[in-house]
């Protein structure tokens, strides 16, 4: 090499796939290798391809530098050398798809493409080896036309469930070509994937999101759904045909998203995974500055600093009101450097002898940078400010102004940076599955409200008992001082359908500091634990109509506790009947149970109206006959302290081993006169015959005639 200019031609060879490229004189073990650098030294360049694939290869000769050519052109010689038999007649064989999934019992279908080389036009016999079922080729044999191609359809049936690799073979005389293909035979729809990220309940998730989930046995592809409502109706995005277990996208800032995935194969789609919810980070765009200002001396570069105290990855940056005085502004160029030392030219030398500058520079501006520089316009900078995207905005930013000529000077009078970046939200959120909706409470200035021991700890809820068919107390512990007031809402998913329905709001009202007793009426037929949500608000929400005040959404101040109830305990008794019968001057009260689990006994009350007041008739608890049994008993009580022609009402209280009670009734009867049957006292008979009750009722009826 020397100072004399030498003509430089460069050789590149591209494979039939259009993307694999070999450069001249780039070798590995004697054969050309992909990559490397262009040879600008040697005037002979070579490409050696080991086992070239069939197809059309592209050879290019590029004139990189031709200073001494005739009329700017350089002659060259191109030599192509091939093995002796490369132009012998032959055929090519290609099978698509190379991998196929089917449901058991279906037919697997492949296309076999046969191509002609050097005028080959003989029949090709097709067969398969290692195939898991019966195969048929149509047509077979198949004959490619002279220097053309033809297709045959391979149909495979009867394959058992499993994963297979087998060979498709083409034979014509002494010529044989084959290709290995794969077949996956599924027996049913795939299982359920598990969601990995973003995790359920995540907040401050960057807008550029990577969704990921576990691989599912039997999956051919995956379907991903993303929406802004837990029912996957609002703003639904559905991405189908995914073969990887991840997906990248960019979402809207400061928005709650719900997502779920299901696996799909030829037998059908699997069930969706339990949905998850997350909230993207908020984006704030503060205006920082003014930066340092001062004199712009000539014939040098002067730096001016601006300090940004906030963290956060940059999503957008504008230079605002970059202004100053300077004669012959064309002397100046402006460069902005980030704390990470990335440099962007804002304004190059331009506008020659004009004076002064005042511009706002924004990548999204409608117009490109133009003269005059002093017009105060918002325009696109010389280089894109997006070069700073993704960097932290925190640190010292440097504006470098270079004055490249003598005589003229000036002053930088002002400049600002508007930097948009993710801003973390200080909030706590529930942890129930996404179908319940994402419920979060943001920190509120002046409020220290929390449930239980710590804000966001999902605690503070104590179940005293949880018995079917009973009103059960739970204790909600409220701590801290509100900025406004304390207010509670409680939901239970009684039907266990993954949603808090309108009827499942079981309590709402003002709360007090410390323990709050909340009565929960548990359905009689509840047989399993259910999800619950307790939200403590700082101030009473105005209405349930807005999302922030429903079981999900954001609220300022307060706390949340999500959880699962205890498994419900069966009710202490199963009462099958409770009646009151007149017996002349007395009234007999009769009741019967079918089970007495956890039952201690009964109290009987009388009143002269259905609303009370009530007087307890028994001095001591009427004991259960079969406590803890899954079978019941019959009970009766003769009330002798009644007045004729007066209607009396009766309530029955059953008491369990935890001292919890449930009331039944009221029932009523009217004492009407003397009866032929007199019974005194109280007796309990587990086998009380129905005939006796019928006799008493009949006698009472006769006495009233």
- What portion of the residues fall into strands of 2 or more residues? over 45%
What's the total helix number? 1
Tell me, rounded to a whole number, the average pLDDT: 88
Query: Sheet bearing the most strands, described?
Result: 7 strands, mixed
Structural class: mainly beta
DSSP, total strands? 51
Distance between the termini: 137 Å
**Which of globular, elongated, flat, extended, rod-shaped describes the shape?**
flat
Low-confidence stretches: 1-5, 545-549, 675-705
Rg value = 43 Å
- Provide the helix percentage: under 10%
Summarize the topology.
Blueprint lengths: L7 E7 L6 E8 L2 E4 L23 E8 L24 E7 L2 E5 L4 E10 L7 E5 L4 E5 L10 E9 L4 E11 L2 E12 L8 E3 L4 E4 L2 E6 L7 E7 L9 E6 L3 E5 L5 E10 L2 E2 L6 E5 L1 E3 L2 E2 L5 E3 L3 E9 L5 E13 L5 E6 L5 E5 L9 E5 L16 E2 L15 E9 L6 E14 L3 E3 L9 E4 L7 E2 L9 E3 L7 E9 L6 E7 L12 E6 L3 E8 L9 E8 L14 E4 L2 E6 L9 E10 L2 E10 L3 E9 L7 E2 L5 E2 L10 E6 L7 E10 L4 E10 L19 H14 L2
Parallel strand pairs: 6-12, 14-21, 29-30, 34-42
Antiparallel strand pairs: 1-2, 1-4, 2-3, 5-7, 7-10, 8-11, 9-10, 11-12, 13-15, 15-18, 16-17, 16-19, 19-20, 19-21, 22-32, 23-32, 24-32, 25-31, 26-29, 26-32, 27-28, 27-31, 33-34, 35-37, 36-37, 37-40, 38-39, 38-41, 41-43, 44-45, 45-49, 46-47, 46-48, 46-50, 50-51
